[in-house]
Amino acid sequence: MAGNAGNAGNAGNAGNAGNVGNAGSGGGWIFPDRVDLPFITEPGVSTYRTTVTEFPDRSWTADWFAWRLLAEFAINDGWSTITVAQPNYASTGAEIDTLVTMAKDERADALGEIFAQNDEFLSYFMALLNVTPSSHPSTCRVMTTASLIALHVVMYWKAYYKRPRPSQICPALLPPIQVPGHASYPSGHSTQAHLVALCLKLVIPASVQPMANDLTVLADRIARNREIAGLHYPNDTNAGVQLADDIYNILIDQTSVPSFADLIEAAQDEWP
Asked: Which of 106, 141, 196, 236 is the most exposed place for a label (fewest CB within 10 A)?
């Protein structure tokens, strides 16, 4: 059973921001070289030099590019003005009863999505919009950046309220995946997914706008799957929706995070 210790490294929601390898942009390649005759020994190849003077902007993968914008977002005072109302502790018992019913009636059918969306769910948005990191690199950067920034803010509030997970109160919920190593409220998956959906609505053109509602429905579904898994209260999900709105209002203020405004414009240019 020692292999299960590897689960301790699963940072849960953090995977949504960094594990874009599953979505096709961060996996990289492996090129085994010959021990006795490496490529560098081929005639003439070692003498060629490029004129590159700086790391190309296009070479930043979406996950690392997102960290650049997170730094810009974090030093801005705007996000510290966000206020998240305290959890509705009075409803905890009723919410757990709801989660028990979900576990009985829905968990078996939802397991596939629960597992798939645990480490990352950006690929669901990519599939819905029929985009890839190669076809729409800036659009994918928007998604990854929104997810990472949401994670940054939500962790502040999780640490502030320290709400226990539902299964810490009702162990019989027994989530089918490891309970993340951070507090319950607000829901990270809800905040991230809904912020991604909001930002994508800024990007897609009028010809695709009828799909805008699908983005919200997908975000709702991702968040609700965490409730079915017994990881979050409905109150956590609702707080995540509101928090996503608050973060979005900061991001669209071009004076707050100028680089994000530039990224949105670049993503819009990728759509006909």
From this structure: 106
Tokens of 61: 């993968």
Identify whether 113 is part of a domain: yes
Distance between CA 240 and CA 218 in Å, rounded? Answer: 14
- Which residue from 176, 36, 47 is spatially nearest to 106, judged by alpha carbons? 176
The CA-atom distances, in angstroms, between 8 and each of 2, 180, 200, 244 are 11, 9, 32, 28
CB count, 10 Å around CB of 179?
Answer: 17
CA distance 220 to 121: 12
Q: Take residue 192 and report the two structure tokens written for it.
A: 């991230």
Q: How far apart are CA 80 and CA 90, in angstroms?
A: 27
Residue ranges making up the domain that contains 73: 61-268
DSSP assignment letter at 163: P
CATH classification at residue 134:
1.20.144.10
- Model confidence band, residue 205 (pLDDT cutoffs 50, 70, 90): very high
Is 244 domain-assigned?
Answer: yes
- Is pTM beyond 0.90 here? no
Cα separation, 176 vs 6, whole angstroms: 16
Most distant pair of Cα atoms in the chain: their distance: 75
| Predicted local distance difference test score (pLDDT) of residue 29 | 83
Backbone angles phi, psi at 172, to 5 degrees: -65, -15
